[in-house]
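Aim 2, interim progress: modelling of the manganese (II) ion-bound target.
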Amino acid sequence: MATPLEKWVDEQAKLTKPARIHWCDGSEEEARKLIEIGLHEEKIGDTPIFQDLNQTNWPKSYYHRSHPTDVARAEHLTFICHPDKETVGPNNNWMHPDEAREKMRKLYDGCMKGRTMYVLPYMMGHPDSPYAKASVQLTDVSYVAVSMRIMTRMSKDVITKIGNRPDFVKGLHSVGDFDPNKRFIMHFPLEQEVWSVGSGYGGNALLGKKCFALRIASWLGYQEGWLAEHMVILGIQDPKGRVTYITAAMPSACGKTNLAMLESALPGYKIWTLGDDIAWLNVGPDGRLYAINPESGFFGVAPGTSMKTNPNMMRTLQNNKFFPTLFTNTGLDTDKNEPWWEGLDGAVPQHVLDWQGKPWTPGGEAKAAHPNSRFTVSIYNAPTLDKEFDNPRGVPISAMLFGGRRMQLIPLVSEAFNWQHGVFLGARTGSETTAAAQHKVGMLRRDPFSMLPFCGYNMGDYFGHWLNMGKRLKNPPKIYSVNWFRVDDNGKFIWPGFGENIRVLKWIVERVHGEVGAKETPLGLVPELKDLELSGLNIPADKMNKLFEIKPEAWKPELEDIRKYMEQFGDRMPQAMWDDYNALVKKLGA
Ligand code: OXD
Ligand code: MN
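Predicted structure of the complex, ligand included:
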């Protein structure tokens, strides 16, 4: 008798009609074979899927160029397909599941002809964790199969684990013919299923990541009483040797990866990494909030990554523990056969091909690396990997940070008065857009909890779910708003960021342990300047004050924007959020 998994694979194969089906076991040997196939057999147009890189300087590394129209998440082509539009909410594109299935079946019909269907059994989370989920993705491109080996715990044991159960998370992916007009990423929360076609780009194609671990998982969390969040997880070791675990939510390409691996500028402090993108949060047996990272790799933005901004990531990329590491849409230094991107250490190389494979001229407008070019690398390569990473119960969280990219208004750091106010801080978050998705860069958009593109249901209900989670916690984490991006009157960043962010984390750790005071403002509790360790920074006091400046007048348009945003959710917006909003308006005298 065929198992539900075998039956499902069979049905998808009847639809997509691959020449052959390969069940992956997740082994290194298999990954090597897939890379060989991508080097010599599979192509996008005339370009092989993979190119070899200089194995001395970049061990186990391979280069990939995606289709030129396929370089970022396609939010406008991403749909949540639940029969009830209200449940999906104004924060998502909605399509009725019947319509979506019909549309997709047409696009899938025969789309894998002549190709291999790879069956990828994988766990999100450690297999022994009560919070982990078993999943299977089907794909027709070696790049995705290899990437999923890096990003998830892929193993044939998952097939055994699924056994006769029908309720594994199902993902069907095909690159189709890369036609942007035939590109869709459809989510079916009720069936725990994702259908994606027409794109090979990470967030659209590695279905374990945004599609499952955030959109489907946030819905499951809402049903089952847990949270799936766009958050890094890290441990802060202080000079006492104590490790305090925190999470931080920030929109795509706003420095989450740098924060997760930060090299402390203050002696005696060390950061331990558990994740750079996604956290699953559960109430533990002791009533505290526990985080696991469902992923096992980093899919990070390459441009700007260097020994100066993120030395631990450079070490991770050049570590040769795990096979393989991938570079996608960076430039290529042809003299050394190495990946190259803007911001990398050292002199600009003489001969560079840009991300589309064309000779590149330094100094011009055009970038060699696409601004959203990426590396895909195992978390086990990280020298900062926390020893608790594989602990099935996760780590207990003492603080949660909400950040965004804001040139004005938002202070460097402020602490919420309580859980409810913290949920309001998360909900009112806005950020200037980046290249991680296809849209105009640098526009302010409201991005509550940095989950706008990833919350798989109505965000009004999501805020309510957060409020309810707080009620179940005995010792809830403290909540903070942070902003590294405030500028001075000349448009220059005031705060140095990167390794210096430890100074903010130090204050947060001391707050968590009741070791330092704070000053009340309309926005929350902020540090007295004397309580921030600023030695060696040379930031004049007036500039430091600017980082915390609150001008009621300047807040007027912001408050308007927040109100309009909140109103969209009608009576799904919890009254508690309006109470906090009104309190803020009153305090600002606006
Ligand atoms: C990502 C993103 O890839 O947020 O992590 O876009
Ligand atoms: Mn992300």
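The mean pLDDT is 96. The two ends are 68 Å apart (CA to CA).
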